[in-house]
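On clarity, I found the account of how folds are encoded harder to follow than it need be. What matters is that the chain and its backbone geometry are given together, residue for residue. I therefore recommend that a typical entry be quoted early in the introduction. An entry of this sort, consisting of the sequence and the corresponding backbone structure tokens, reads as follows:
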Amino acid sequence: MNKDKATGALLMVISVVVILAYLIILWYPPIAAKAALTLLKLTGSIAVLAIFAIIGWIGYTLVTTPPPKPIEEIEKELEKELKEIEKETKEESQKQANP
């Protein structure tokens, strides 16, 4: 078994164990009476933190990323480069025609 398959199998086993432990803590009466509310608070907190961490990261990315160049500026640069290439091509063809 290669490393990726072994890692995948381990992740699957861990997921099943965590799911079972979560459900037992949440629904098994002797444990649920003491830990269910704490577990639900923990789950809700993690979910809210994860969602708003992602939203914050998106906001940070939007703030720190420079805006793209306007299309007009890009078109001007492309036209300039195209003219330079055409000029170089003409010069090369003239050099080849007149050795």
